[in-house]
Specification:
heterotrimer, A alpha/beta, B alpha+beta, C mainly alpha, A: alpha/beta, Beta Polymerase, domain 2, 5-stranded mixed beta sheet, two-stranded parallel ribbon, 3 helices, 17% helix, globular, B: alpha+beta, Cytochrome-c3 Hydrogenase, chain B, 2 domains, 3-stranded antiparallel beta sheet, 46% helix, 12% strand
């Protein structure tokens, strides 16, 4: 099956794209002779519609696939969206938190995968919630502008994951009770390892 | 003063009543992880896990290798359970490249995954026996899993780190007489593990040591985001093979084992029940498997996906649900690869459960969380 | 030559040989001979056939076959032999060595393994000797801040106490190293000494893990002493004497375990705890505190502690047999010795075959009764040791608070029940000192 997904958006307010509807957005690069409208899965579409209905243009639905719905949010609104996902949509835990470094956009993206154990209709679904943080050339982890609000008070299970992103990418989480090293040794004095500037020796 | 010399260290005031014990990485009771435990007499006041002693930077290294070269690289977190660690990655890459896997390959993957699950759980049970001081419980699983390791060796050529799953199917077909040998081994294996109840699970001292210790309620298990046998021992019926079936699991009949107590005894019993369930699954898969067909879709060298895609796939491994998040930007190497491992997710339950426990219960609670240190560190 | 010893020089070899010979002769003559004379001065030489035995006389008599056996007999009658060889150290050490081997083999079979296999022609029977040689050759490492005199002395005192315990156990009628009237009280005193040695050894090592292990060993041994003593009081009540030989002799018709099964069970459990055997091996809990109070002992000190532990095992098993299982009593399964034949010899025509001195040996010392008694004692002890070893393959380790609950609560209660049973039997006139009435 062909999966159309947009490039994770450069700017978060997606005014230039048409409202997320049944038609997929046209790909900016490929030259296809015709567009075959793909029917988006109904249940996942229902979930994404509810979020869009509540938050309007503060969120952007990146794709709606089978079992996966991806929402891009700005860092100011991520707390509200996460709270709605927990209370309104019955998702109860975060499975994993990933940080991706985009040096060409000067941003670091943090992606939360949120799932549900208690609701049996949502057992397969995962909401992919993505926010972006600013990225600086010379990072001082903890003391520069790479900050995001923490989701720990909403979803308790992100505690260790956010600590790992702090040490691996240098993203400071405001409000996290314990921003400390987890996997790296205590005397690590180099760049955060998962950044693209940190190059492995010999490659 | 110390902070200037070595960033990351901090001086702590010493409390006269509380003793800080370093259950360190070089300790017969801790695996490759350090637990800084603060005890007041016999009770644990606080516990601070310190993983990272086996951290290799696998996710960073994966960005330098193309999709096929990542196969032997990514199976290293859990060497016995390597098929299950590769499984979500392989499924994700197949979605990125847009490949459909032949039917026989799906069944072979199911059989390999179930065998690996049993091998891992036997090893975990063996170490659980050592932690409790039960040397017979160490020797029996370690010996009985040789039956299954022999099967894996026949199938893939290696005892551990099989590197058998590739995007597009499985590397090689099953050897000629595999079905009969597998059935015999699995039947004998099931008979052997049924005897464990006499020496281990019905042992009064074991029951006295693990019952009602480290109780994780259902609410907490969901809120902490635990997974796998820890979750099922607390009463949540969640098994990815049933809820989100992948490959041939939607055609097989699977029963999920759930226990309600949520204590260490339940958490140590669920994997054993899961093993017996795996034997059933293997037997069904051997029956339903298409008898012939290709097991691999040949790829062009240096395969790459089109455009920018992100995929998240997950699989039920021996410890819980293992996920793999792949970000691809059209190059032959993944842009970012993240393994969301169940051991790391279950780790958050450890400081939560150990607060207020007796020090003598620490090994039984800690290892019952199905924690594999190498995997948690990646 | 160059492959084996590339720098071999014949002159150096001969020089080293002569060096060794020189030193051996020097030490033997200057130190050895005076030592032998001093010992001979102190030891009483036996009187055989009216003549005082001197070393030269002994050497000349041993050459005469008709006098060898009387010499051996008179040596066997001395106290030294009893202490060192038969019911004392040598016998106990032999049984201890056998116990270690059987334990390793039995554990292996339970755990689907083979156990010692390669050392020795038959299934690894020389493994213990190999292990002993290894321990002797290791370097003994003393922690820098340890209390050196006590640290060195602790294993030696441990073995000495275990040997003292062994000395009180009667093996056959009349064959006991120390025939004390208050034998059982002596046993209690010796058992009460063991926790002190453990805590001394643990404290003097000055390190965290032996400290925790020593405290745990102290908890364990002290909390199980009271049920131990109480469970044995039932037997004392029914026998009326504290002398171990008399207790064994009083069971000539029936062993006490028939009447006091509760006491036997309580004693068995406390025995496992005093010996630090699984399930009570908290002081050496490997997965939690490395090796407990044995952590800092290395080389032969560890070997001495192991020797002491297994001597203790034999002594406790022997105590159980003497008190509850009837000691050396048992049906006569050894055929009676043909004394007549030995005294007069076998006559075949003009030739008489006779071994001089064998008859007195067999009638006075190694009597038929003694052989039978020893055989039954050994059989029963081996059986008890088998049951002590068996829980090692079956049970995990018990936890500290469960242990203390057991020792201070349940076992004391059961021991009191046992005493009441014994008192009831006594005052109802069923049993009494001396046997069934």
């Amino acid at each position: 099956m062909s999966t159309d997904s947009d490039k994770p958006a450069t700017d978060v307010k997606s005014e230039e794209k048409p409202a997320p509807a049944a038609k997929p957005a046209p790909k900016p690069v490929a030259k296809k002779p015709e567009e075959i409208p793909v029917e988006l899965p109904a249940f996942e579409k229902g979930i994404s519609d509810k979020i869009v209905e509540k938050f309007g243009d503060k969120v952007e639905v990146a794709f709606v696939k089978e079992d996966r719905v991806r929402i891009n949010v700005s860092r100011e609104n991520v707390l509200d969206v996460a709270e709605f996902i927990r209370d309104g949509l019955n998702f109860d835990h975060v499975e994993s938190v990933t940080g991706v470094d985009f040096p060409q956009d000067k941003e670091i993206e943090v992606v939360y995968h949120i799932g549900s154990y208690s609701d049996s209709t949502l057992a397969r679904q995962i909401i992919v919630l993505a926010t972006r943080a600013q990225r600086e050339e010379n990072p001082i982890p903890g003391n520069d502008s790479t900050k995001l609000p923490t989701l720990r008070n909403i979803f308790y299970s992100v505690e260790f994951h956010e600590r790992e992103i702090f040490e691996m990418l240098g993203v400071y989480f405001d409000g996290h009770p314990d921003n400390r090293r987890l996997l790296l040794p205590e005397d690590w004095a180099d760049l955060p390892p998962l950044r693209k500037d940190f190059v492995l020796k010999g490659r | 003063m110390m902070n200037e010399i070595m960033p990351g260290l901090a001086l702590q005031k010493v409390d006269e009543r509380i003793m800080t014990l370093n259950v360190g990485p070089q300790h017969p009771g801790s695996g490759h992880m350090r637990l800084v435990v603060q005890i007041d007499g016999d009770y644990i006041v606080a516990c601070d896990p310190d993983p990272g002693y086996v951290h290799r930077g696998e996710e960073k290294m994966a960005e330098y290798r193309n999709y096929i070269l990542n196969i032997p690289h990514l199976e290293r977190p859990v060497i016995h359970d390597s098929c299950n660690v590769l499984y979500p990655y392989v499924l994700g890459v197949e979605e990125i490249l847009g490949i459909e896997v032949p039917e026989r390959a799906k069944y072979v993957r199911v059989i390999a995954s179930e065998l690996n699950r049993c091998i891992y759980i036997m090893y975990w049970l063996a170490i659980y026996g050592i932690f409790l001081g039960h040397s017979t419980m160490f020797m029996w699983p370690a010996g009985d899993r040789e039956l299954l390791i022999d099967l894996m060796e026949k199938m893939t050529g290696a005892r551990v780190t099989h590197a058998h799953f590739v995007p597009g199917g499985v590397r090689n077909d099953l050897p000629p007489n595999f079905e009969d040998v597998c059935l015999r081994h699995v039947n004998y294996f099931e008979k052997r593990i049924k005897e464990y109840s006499a020496v281990f699970y019905d042992n009064p001292i074991l029951i006295a040591r693990t019952r009602d210790t480290g109780v994780l309620s259902r609410q907490d298990a969901i809120r902490l985001g635990t997974t796998g046998s820890v979750l099922r021992a607390s009463g949540v019926d969640y098994d990815l093979r049933k809820k989100e079936p992948y490959d041939a699991y939607d055609e097989l009949d699977i029963h999920t084992n759930v226990m309600k107590e949520g204590d260490s005894y339940a958490r140590s019993r669920i994997p054993w029940l899961d093993m017996m369930e795996s034997c059933n699954i293997i037997r069904q898969a051997l029956q339903k498997m298409p008898k012939s067909g290709s097991v691999r879709v040949k790829l062009k060298p240096n395969p790459k996906g089109k455009g920018d895609q992100t995929v998240y796939k997950r699989v039920e491994s021996g410890r819980g649900s293992l996920g793999c998040y792949v970000v691809s930007n059209g190059k032959p190497e993944p842009y970012r690869l993240k393994l969301s491992v169940p051991s790391f997710r279950n780790l958050i339950a450890l400081p939560y459960l150990l607060k207020g426990e007796k020090l003598g219960n620490m090994p039984s609670v800690y290892w019952s969380l199905n924690y594999w240190p190498v995997e948690a560190d990646r | 030559m160059s492959v084996i010893a590339p720098k071999f020089k014949l002159s150096e070899f001969i020089k080293s040989l002569l060096d060794n010979i020189f030193w051996i002769i020097l030490i033997l003559n200057l130190i050895g001979l005076p030592l032998v004379f001093m010992i001979l001065f102190a030891i009483e030489m036996p009187v055989i056939h009216g003549e005082l035995l001197t070393p030269f006389l002994a050497l000349s008599w041993i050459a005469d076959p008709s006098r060898t056996l009387p010499i051996i007999q008179s040596f066997m009658e001395t106290d030294m032999f009893k202490v060192m060889a038969f019911p004392g150290f040598g016998f106990a050490a032999l049984l201890a060595a056998g116990t270690i081997f059987v334990e390793r083999k039995m554990m292996a079979k339970i755990q689907l393994r083979v156990g010692p296999f390669y050392c020795g022609k038959f299934e690894g029977i020389l493994q213990l000797m190999g292990d002993g040689l290894k321990l002797i050759s290791k370097e003994i490492i003393i922690p820098a801040k340890a209390d050196k005199p006590i640290f060195w002395a602790a294993p030696v005192i441990f073995v000495a106490t275990a040997a003292a315990f062994v000395a009180l156990i009667p093996v056959a009628p009349g064959w006991v190293v120390a025939d004390v009237d208050l034998g059982l009280l002596g046993v209690f005193a010796v058992i009460g000494f063991f926790p002190i040695i453990t805590i001394l050894s643990a404290w003097s090592a000055n390190s965290k893990y032996p400290f925790i292990g020593g405290i745990r060993a102290l908890f364990q041994m002290v909390s199980f002493e009271i049920p131990l003593i109480l469970s044995l009081l039932g037997v004392v009540i029914l026998t009326g004497s504290l002398n171990l030989s008399e207790i064994a002799a009083s069971q000539s018709n029936f062993p006490w375990i028939i009447f006091l099964p509760v006491g036997a069970i309580v004693f068995f459990i406390t025995m496992l705890a005093e010996l630090e055997r699984i399930p009570f091996d908290l002081p050496e809990a490997e997965s939690e505190i490395v090796a407990g109070w044995l952590t800092e002992l290395s080389g032969m000190m560890y070997g001495l502690v192991q020797l002491g532990t297994y001597l203790k095992l034999y002594a406790f098993a022997g105590l159980f047999v003497v008190l509850f299982l009837g000691g050396w009593n048992g049906p006569t399964i050894v055929p009676p010795l043909p004394i007549e034949l030995i005294e007069h010899g076998i006559e075949m025509g003009p030739i008489t075959l006779k071994i001089a001195g064998l008859a007195p040996l067999l009638t006075e010392l190694i009597t038929h009764e003694m052989i039978n008694g020893t055989l039954w004692f050994v059989l029963k002890t081996v059986g008890v040791i088998f049951f002590i070893i068996l829980p090692r393959g079956v049970f995990p380790r018990i936890r500290v608070d469960m242990l203390l609950n057991l020792g201070w609560g349940k076992l004391i209660g059961l021991a009191f029940v046992n005493i009441f049973i014994a008192l009831g039997l006594l005052y109802a006139g069923v049993l009494g000192p001396g046997g069934l009435q």
